[in-house]
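Tyrosine recombinase XerD structure dump, as promised
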Amino acid sequence: MSADPALGAFFEMLAAERNAAANTLSAYKRDLDDLSAFLKRGLAEASSGDLRRYLGFLADNDLSPRTQARRLSACKQFYRFLVEDGRRSDDPTAALDAPKLGRPLPKLLSEAEMTALINVCTALDGAEGARLLAMIELLYATGLRVSELVRMPVSVVMRDQPFLTVKGKGGKERLVPLNGPARGALNAYLTLRPEFMKGMPGSPFLFPSRGKEGHLTRQRFGQLLKEIALKANIDPARVSPHVLRHAFATHLLDHGADLRSLQKMLGHADISTTQIYTHVQQDRLKSLVEAHHPLAKSTSRKRDIAVKK
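structure tokens r here:
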């Protein structure tokens, strides 16, 4: 992936030892290529001062704290590898601090909005509508990552079972439950799946495509979702495959699921990642109380009176 021997060895380690996905490798490459372009020389010889100047350059160019933190994380991973591999004796990122990040809360769709999306798909005719309904029902029922959804083998869903075996990040497998509506939408789609395979050899993918990847891409699925959002009178900017994953998690917690179970279903390695949804709940409850509780309204009126006085 790189003409730089140190970078090449780093990418080989990520692929072989950590089983990093292609998207992960591409993200690391973009971030480290950006650092290389800034330094105008090989990365292996960079000093802490070089990297501080790079972080200053990112901040001066108004990159978000999250983007700065991601690029610093890529640097830390790379230089830690160089030390462990004996290519450097010191880690120039050891004393560098990541920028402080606010806690971004996931975009949300209400249960009523999810029902509206599903109803629009249900009203569509033909194979296209059946496929889109199956994909939305699957995401909302399981919380799959979109990459897991579009690459899912058809063999996983051919058996009538209450669980799916999903291969997630790092090749780790997990079981996710499959509810009745999702199974029904899948069965309806499977009868029409041959419509997407005309003139093609047998495809291993649940959602085949004639494109070079062999399956419907996540970008195309995202476009289709936004078209459905318009028909459901929902702002398309609020709708994406990842938002459906958030809807699954948030609505499940609303109905009493525990964090550990949710962590397993989402495939999070660390429960701290899952805990973001408890903050979503707290913010929603706070807004609900402020908007509807009579004492909150009374407090607001008292403040208005005080201001007038």
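The chain has a mean pLDDT of 83.
lmk if u need the other ones
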